[in-house]
Amino acid sequence: MYRNYFKVAIRNLLKHKMYGLLNIMGLALSITCALLIFLLVKYHMGFDNYHNNPERIYRVVTEQHRDNVMYTFSTPPALGSVLKSDFDFEENISRIVNFENAVVGVETANGIEKFKEPAGAAFVEPGYFGIFKYPMLNNGNPEAALTDLGAVIITERLAKKYFGNASPINKIIHVDNVLTVRVTGVLKDIPSNTDNRAEIFMSFKTLKEVEPWFTQPDAWGGITTALQLYIKLKPNVSPAQVENALPAYVKKFRTSNKNVHVYKLQPLNDVHFNPLFGGVIEKKTIWILSFIGIFLIITACVNFINLSTAQALRRSKEVGIRKVLGSMRWQLFWQFMAETIIITVVASVIAFVFTTLLVPYVNNLFNARLALDTFKDPILLAFMPVLMLFVAFLAGFYPGLVLSGFKPITALKGKMSFQQIGGFNTRRVLIVTQFTICLVLMIGMIVITRQVRFTQNTDLGFKKDAILMVPLRPSDDDQKGKYLKEQLLKVPGVLNGSLCYAAPSSAEQWNTNIRFDTRTEQENFLSNIKSSDADYINTFQIKLVAGRNLFPSDSVREVLVNETLVNKLGLTSPDQALNRMLYIAGGDQKAMIVGVMKDFHDGSLRRDIHSVAITTIIENYNNVALTVDLNKLNTIMPAIEKIWTATYPDYVYEYTFLDHNIAQFYATETTMLELIRVFSFIAIFIGCLGLYGLISFMASQKTKEIGIRKLLGSSIGRILWIFGKEFSVLIGIAFIIAAPLAGWLMSKWLEDFKYHVKIDATVFLIAVAATIFITLLTISYQGVKAALANPIKNLRSE
């Protein structure tokens, strides 16, 4: 019996190829999107959940309370050593200090070969491998492998990269031209879904030779994002118990500091998602993607229902004959369900092929490592059939119920009523649902597009275009950076240059306390200190509102401040700040204020402008910023690389453009925009298939009406309006539902930005106008075809 169901179903689909093709296309596209979204959600939700007892692993983070609250995923270095000696809550505790973009040198027969490792090289304490599950090859012990000073363990991937098939044990590698270490162990490759991506691990005591500050017991005065502190609690110990004990350390070690620290425990499963502490992707983004996937499936199923019920008149006599010959309703229902299942299976196979082809693109877009390996992934293996059954049931249940419910006599006579074949009202609800989903996605796309353009085009208060950022490298000679700058400025096409810590707007920031002039107390706010030479203002075209620029100097003598800092000092005008002293970092640096800069955005548009001070701390120069002629890049770039490599022969050359760096602040929004665009077009396309089904249904039902109207002299335009007015009402209803919903959703999304666009009426007008235009294009073919049909022939057939 079931074999016969599928045999008849295949024959019917082959007979009505266009019907089957439209349904397969709609379902294949929606299932493809659902699969890609599922892979993406599964990938992100699985971050760092493969460790033993991940629910007991926490990262200690810091809230710095001053005039506002600043959040950092790091702590003062000394906190880790104190907690290790004083605590009884933890099973393991470890600090990790990771220096990203490490340069690794490997000795070969032709000399030392250089490799750049963006994930960096990390220094860890013994407890690190008791917290995180990183097994070694041959069941070795990573803690024992890091016992000796100068020992290093690397992953299997790096071992093959550096040494090929030779054994890496006892081989020598050079890290950042500072450390020479010996490989004492090899870890199994670390899974890709982790936020701690370092693959080079050295013992924490080795760090004392490179950066002794991290190991000092009194290092309470600073925080750097290079350091993280992880803790694995004992069973039955709650994070609240630990957090209640932490304020005692603040009172004991930071008694006179206005920068009040609050230490908290961040669960490991929150690390990947919390934007306050450097999370990669917010959970709300995951939820948005999930809902989009569901909406697209619903849209495709609605389209399937519309097309299936529009075919009802063609199937009515078939149903009537089957019932006269004794078929039961449930048998007819499963006959139509068999057709739906075949269409769903074919669409799923096509979707699987599409997904396989699109996974590399999604990986590149999201900087992810998705893999479509169904037979090795039990979750995906379970998801595929569940999705197929869900789609088949959702798409096929209602059409099967309607078609199997025809009365045989009425069906054979061909006198089916609207209600018997699904009726307009049901179809109107379905179409309104499709329009609503499309409008919500279109409004979201318009708002995100405007915000992304706003971030790209808004005046940040400094020059960001045609600025090349070339890093400096560690050197015992403080004058090497100055020499490099002088040589680079001789390159034709290099217009200006400045030695600096970072660009005006940068993720790299040194926020520290300041004291103003004769005041005895530190100010109750942190300031962003930017070290640079006197050419910084001209290179980045930062405007002064009072005073003058810095004079060239290799020591700290003068300082520039911005308008926000002046306002926070309580001064009524910029001139009041001039020629007064500013003490930086507890008085380690002091300088006279000689100029006040017009405010510029020193970070993302998500937050307020910070108080900023610029002075000449030569040991903090990390980059040389160059203004270049973009028309001469073909000659400029090789010349710069040649000079840089000659200056730093032991390092790997790299560079970035400032506008690209700033764009990285909004990488998530740009990615979201690309996805919304794609999903919107897919939803619209699937919706157009549904409209095609509805207009086919309407044309078949209004054949006699159209014929009579034409005989009475109606024009083609008036006949087209019969169809147009129906959809105008449906679009209006969908807009009434979609506009407030999309407006609320996008308003919540824009709350993440301190500076953002406004959602005005044009957003909604563009969305509804585009929907009407697309609808007219979709219905025009069938509408014009019906309007041009021979009325005599139509009336005879009626």
TrEMBL record:
Classification via Pfam families: FtsX, MacB_PCD
All copies of domain MacB-like periplasmic core, residue ranges: 21-248, 437-603
GO function terms (MF aspect): transmembrane transporter activity
GO cellular component, one term: plasma membrane
Name the record gives this protein: Putative permease
Localization annotation: Cell membrane
Keywords: Cell membrane, Membrane, Transmembrane, Transmembrane helix
InterPro entries, A to Z: ABC3_permease_C, MacB_PCD, Macrolide_Exporter_MacB
Organism: Chitinophaga skermanii
Membrane-protein topology: Multi-pass membrane protein
Ranges annotated as spanning the membrane: 21-41, 286-307, 332-359, 379-406, 427-448, 678-699, 719-742, 762-784
Stretches assigned to the ABC3 transporter permease C-terminal domain: 291-405, 678-786
Entry-linked PANTHER family: ABC-TYPE MACROLIDE FAMILY EXPORT SYSTEM PERMEASE COMPONENT 2, MEMBRANE COMPONENT OF TRANSPORTER-RELATED
Top-level taxonomic group: Bacteria
